[in-house]
């Protein structure tokens, strides 16, 4: 009796609370991957599930998102399937872009269009790299921004109400794994145990601030982040934007990175993905303070001699936000966060 062979699928390990997971989902939807091509598995990072021995076998640095894909040449029914894991966000988005295209050899069952997200020219590729590298810098990572999102003791206490329970849960998970190693319930390498201890120490350093340790140092770092670093990053990104999308009229990989990072920044500023572009960007400007404003150097529509409507000058980021907000990928990723 013959049995049908099921081609192994890619598996995306992601978290709804992970900013870069949102970027990967945006890429999946923009590229038109079918539901039967990629399995989505949630990793509860609020409870430290990425530190589990099982997940560390996939991503030794506990990085979420992680995409596990079957290797080309191991898809036949008479060959043992082999897989590789991709955890770097930039590499992952580029992989998704190239793996579903007119020239790729990837097995696909989706009939949806697969538009290229790669920049079309050398100049656009250079602009794209500058935007992506700026947003992917460690100093402005989503976790770092969230941790430093308080500029006085009152807002620090308020921030602690949401972050401390999560941090304590993550620490408890790591302590549990180290305890299991100690009583030999599980066996892990010294390298893994050292990694757990390092992450535990990092969490405890953050927790110490919320319990009153080095508050002045924290407020100094926060002030620098929001009054110097973030304005600098936004200015550099804005200089590279063409509009309405990052590189002009077509969505590119730069838009994927910018959408995820900017939506996080807007939430930290008290906004939500459902806000209009002008509203969202004004909230960011107000949150930064010190008179910081974006130049309104993008014309929302071309002037037509046949109508009385005149083009409206707005910031490029506001126009970008509204352009992305109309896309089905944005609506699918951020629909559940509209009221956050």
Low-confidence stretches: 74-80
* Residues in helices, as a percent range: 40-55%
Whole-number mean pLDDT:
90
**Global morphology:** globular
Order of helices and strands: EHEHEEHHHHHHHHEEHH
Number of strands: 6
Biggest sheet statistics = 4 strands, mixed
Q: Count helical runs.
A: 12
Q: What's the gyration radius in Å?
A: 22 Å
User: Looking across the biggest beta sheet, what order are the strands in?
Assistant: 2-1-3-4
Give the terminus-to-terminus CA distance: 53 Å
Q: What structural class do helix, strand and pairing data support?
A: alpha+beta
Account of the 3D structure:
The longest helix has 30 residues, at 153-182. The protein starts with 9 loop residues before the first strand and ends in a 6-residue tail after the last helix. The protein is globular, with a radius of gyration of 22 Å. Mean pLDDT is 90; it is low at 74-80. The strands form two sheets. The protein has a four-stranded mixed sheet. Helix 1 runs antiparallel to helix 9 (253-268) and helix 4 (122-135) runs parallel beside helix 9. It is built from twelve helices and six strands. The protein has 340 residues and is an alpha+beta fold.
Task: Give a quick summary of the entry.
The protein has 340 residues and is of the alpha+beta class.
Show the helix and strand layout.
Blueprint: E1 10-14, H1 19-31, E2 38-42, H2 53-58, E3 66-70, E4 83-86, H3 89-99, H4 122-135, H5 142-147, H6 153-182, H7 190-210, H8 215-240, H9 253-268, H10 277-288, E5 298-299, E6 313-314, H11 316-325, H12 328-334
Parallel strand pairs: 1-2
Antiparallel strand pairs: 1-3, 3-4, 5-6
Helix pairs in contact: 1-3, 1-9, 1-12, 4-8, 4-9, 6-7, 10-11
